[in-house]
Amino acid sequence: MRAGYTHASLRLADLAAAAWPFLHRDRAGANGEVRAILEDNGIRVLDLEGAPIDAFSPLDTFLPLLETAARLGARHVVARIDDTERERATEAFARLCDRALPFRLTVELSCVHGSATPRLAAAAAVVGAINRPNAGILIDTLDFTRAGDEPEELRRLPKEWFHLVRVRDAASAGSTTNCPAVVLPGEGSVDLRGILDALPAGLPYALVPPRAANAGAEEGWARRCILAARDCIDGLHGIRDLQAA
């Protein structure tokens, strides 16, 4: 909070780990400690990332994640689809949304390089097909740029599909072979203003800052990152819930 942030986005498990769902089990004590630390610093949890949908994981494995999200007071969980069988993956995403609804959570489908929905059109096809009130699409400005999507495509989609946006800038953002290094907002080649202006007003902005160069300088660096973001998007929609992710 001292650096100007109000929320945090959390990633509780390595998405590449085969046993990731079990990392969320029996962690009520640890989650309580995390929440206490956040509350002591005036920080709330916006979203949790950690729901990779593949052809093998039964939907029951996501219950610990949903329970953890609710326990920490999160509003959203972020999912990615790794199953290339579209009909099966769409049905699984729909069932995940159904499971999340009693926890008052939205499920945000990410458009991310290397997933089965790397582009906006693919994610929109899934969300449009299931017609769930808590289904959404997570736009990451860097992944959006790497995919070659255009801001005008966002304007054609229902506003209620968007609940937050992840803000990242990078040099050589158009590269599809290597993940570009994240830089301060406004110092890279991502069209932050164009993308954010095409999204609905009032969305929380989840800032992904580059790492601090020196250990121990994190607070000052975090403050510099959020100031750079505010300068970059000055005049757009207004600033609301811009927080570290």
Detailed description of the structure:
This protein has 245 residues and is an alpha/beta fold. It has one domain: TIM Barrel (Alpha-Beta Barrel), CATH 3.20.20.150. It has helices spanning 28-40, 63-72, 86-100, 120-130, 141-146, 151-155, 192-198, 218-232, and strands at 7-11, 44-53, 76-81, 106-110, 135-140, 165-167, 169-170, 182-183, 205-207, 243-244. It has an eight-stranded parallel β-sheet. A two-stranded antiparallel sheet has the order 7-8. Helix 3 packs across helix 4 (120-130). The longest helix has 15 residues, at 86-100. 38% of the residues are buried. Residues 32-199 form the Xylose isomerase-like TIM barrel domain. It comes from Thauera phenylacetica B4P. It holds the Pfam family AP_endonuc_2. This is Xylose isomerase-like protein. Keywords: Isomerase.
Which key features would you list for this structure?
Xyl_isomerase-like_TIM-brl, Xyl_isomerase-like_sf, TIM Barrel, 10 strands, alpha/beta, 245 residues
